[in-house]
Amino acid sequence: MSCKQVILVRQDLKLPKGKLAAQCSHASVDCILKSDKKIVEKWKAQGGKKVVLKAADERELFKYMSMAENEGIKVALIKDAGHTVVEPGTITCLGIGPDLEEKIDKITGKLKMV
Protein backbone atom coordinates (compact mmCIF):
# COMPACT_ATOMS: atom_id res chain seq x y z
CA MET A 1 0.00 0.00 0.00
CA SER A 2 1.76 3.10 -1.24
CA CYS A 3 1.54 6.57 0.24
CA LYS A 4 1.69 10.02 -1.28
CA GLN A 5 1.16 13.68 -0.58
CA VAL A 6 -0.81 16.12 -2.74
CA ILE A 7 -0.54 19.89 -2.86
CA LEU A 8 -3.44 21.82 -4.44
CA VAL A 9 -2.54 25.24 -5.84
CA ARG A 10 -4.95 28.06 -6.67
CA GLN A 11 -4.81 28.84 -10.38
CA ASP A 12 -6.68 32.15 -10.14
CA LEU A 13 -3.71 33.77 -8.32
CA LYS A 14 -1.29 33.09 -11.20
CA LEU A 15 1.65 32.89 -8.79
CA PRO A 16 5.19 33.25 -10.17
CA LYS A 17 7.14 29.96 -10.15
CA GLY A 18 9.33 30.89 -7.20
CA LYS A 19 6.37 31.97 -5.08
CA LEU A 20 4.49 28.81 -6.09
CA ALA A 21 7.43 26.63 -5.03
CA ALA A 22 7.68 28.36 -1.65
CA GLN A 23 3.94 28.00 -0.96
CA CYS A 24 4.02 24.31 -1.92
CA SER A 25 6.96 23.80 0.43
CA HIS A 26 5.04 25.40 3.29
CA ALA A 27 2.09 23.09 2.61
CA SER A 28 4.27 19.98 2.45
CA VAL A 29 6.16 20.70 5.66
CA ASP A 30 3.06 21.74 7.59
CA CYS A 31 1.24 18.54 6.62
CA ILE A 32 4.20 16.36 7.57
CA LEU A 33 4.43 18.01 10.98
CA LYS A 34 0.71 17.29 11.59
CA SER A 35 0.72 13.71 10.28
CA ASP A 36 1.07 10.41 12.11
CA LYS A 37 4.78 9.58 12.40
CA LYS A 38 4.25 5.98 11.22
CA ILE A 39 2.61 7.15 8.01
CA VAL A 40 5.35 9.75 7.45
CA GLU A 41 8.07 7.10 7.93
CA LYS A 42 6.35 4.71 5.51
CA TRP A 43 5.91 7.54 2.97
CA LYS A 44 9.58 8.57 3.29
CA ALA A 45 10.74 4.94 2.91
CA GLN A 46 8.76 4.76 -0.36
CA GLY A 47 10.46 7.89 -1.75
CA GLY A 48 8.19 10.64 -0.41
CA LYS A 49 5.93 10.92 -3.47
CA LYS A 50 4.43 14.40 -3.90
CA VAL A 51 2.05 15.58 -6.61
CA VAL A 52 1.12 19.23 -7.26
CA LEU A 53 -2.37 19.69 -8.70
CA LYS A 54 -4.50 22.58 -9.94
CA ALA A 55 -7.41 24.04 -7.98
CA ALA A 56 -9.47 26.78 -9.60
CA ASP A 57 -9.81 29.09 -6.60
CA GLU A 58 -10.13 29.43 -2.84
CA ARG A 59 -13.62 27.91 -2.85
CA GLU A 60 -12.30 24.76 -4.48
CA LEU A 61 -9.48 24.48 -1.92
CA PHE A 62 -12.04 24.55 0.90
CA LYS A 63 -14.11 21.90 -0.86
CA TYR A 64 -11.14 19.51 -1.11
CA MET A 65 -10.01 20.35 2.42
CA SER A 66 -13.42 19.32 3.76
CA MET A 67 -13.41 16.10 1.74
CA ALA A 68 -9.94 15.15 3.00
CA GLU A 69 -10.79 15.95 6.62
CA ASN A 70 -13.93 13.82 6.34
CA GLU A 71 -11.69 10.89 5.35
CA GLY A 72 -9.36 11.52 8.31
CA ILE A 73 -6.50 12.78 6.13
CA LYS A 74 -4.30 15.54 7.57
CA VAL A 75 -4.41 18.86 5.70
CA ALA A 76 -2.61 22.20 5.80
CA LEU A 77 -4.26 25.34 4.43
CA ILE A 78 -1.57 27.91 3.63
CA LYS A 79 -2.11 31.64 4.16
CA ASP A 80 0.55 33.94 2.78
CA ALA A 81 2.20 36.59 4.96
CA GLY A 82 1.79 39.08 2.12
CA HIS A 83 5.36 40.38 1.93
CA THR A 84 5.75 39.99 -1.83
CA VAL A 85 3.13 39.00 -4.42
CA VAL A 86 -0.27 38.71 -2.73
CA GLU A 87 -2.16 40.48 0.06
CA PRO A 88 -1.56 39.34 3.66
CA GLY A 89 -3.79 36.41 4.58
CA THR A 90 -4.32 35.23 0.99
CA ILE A 91 -4.93 31.49 0.92
CA THR A 92 -2.55 30.08 -1.69
CA CYS A 93 -2.60 26.29 -1.47
CA LEU A 94 -3.65 23.19 0.43
CA GLY A 95 -1.47 20.28 1.49
CA ILE A 96 -3.10 16.85 1.77
CA GLY A 97 -1.33 13.93 3.43
CA PRO A 98 0.88 12.00 3.29
CA ASP A 99 -1.55 9.14 3.53
CA LEU A 100 -2.53 6.06 1.55
CA GLU A 101 -2.54 6.82 -2.15
CA GLU A 102 -5.95 5.22 -2.72
CA LYS A 103 -7.55 7.41 -0.02
CA ILE A 104 -6.11 10.59 -1.52
CA ASP A 105 -6.90 9.55 -5.10
CA LYS A 106 -10.60 9.15 -4.19
CA ILE A 107 -10.60 12.86 -3.44
CA THR A 108 -8.11 14.42 -5.89
CA GLY A 109 -7.76 11.77 -8.59
CA LYS A 110 -9.57 13.81 -11.28
CA LEU A 111 -7.53 17.00 -10.88
CA LYS A 112 -4.83 18.00 -13.38
CA MET A 113 -1.16 18.51 -12.56
CA VAL A 114 0.32 22.01 -12.44
Q: Concise description?
A:
With 114 residues, the chain is α+β, with helices and mostly antiparallel strands. The protein has four helices and four strands, in the order βααβαββα.
What does this structure look like?
This protein has 114 residues and is of the alpha+beta class. The chain has one domain: Bit1 (3-Layer(aba) Sandwich). Helix content is 42%, strand content 25%. It contains four helices and four strands; from the N terminus they run βααβαββα. The protein has helices spanning 17-34, 37-45, 58-70, 101-108; strands spanning 3-10, 50-55, 75-79, 91-100. It has a four-stranded mixed beta sheet with strand order 2-1-4-3, with helices on both faces. The radius of gyration is 13 Å and the shape is globular.
Q: What is the CATH C-level name?
A: Alpha Beta
Q: What oligomeric state best describes the polypeptide chains here?
A: single chain
CATH superfamily: Bit1
Strand content: 25-35%
The tally of beta strands, per DSSP, is 4
At CATH level 3, the topology is Bit1
Record the SSE blueprint:
Layout: E1 3-10, H1 17-34, H2 37-45, E2 50-55, H3 58-70, E3 75-79, E4 91-100, H4 101-108
Parallel strand pairs: 1-2
Antiparallel strand pairs: 1-4, 3-4
Features:
114 residues; 4 helices; globular
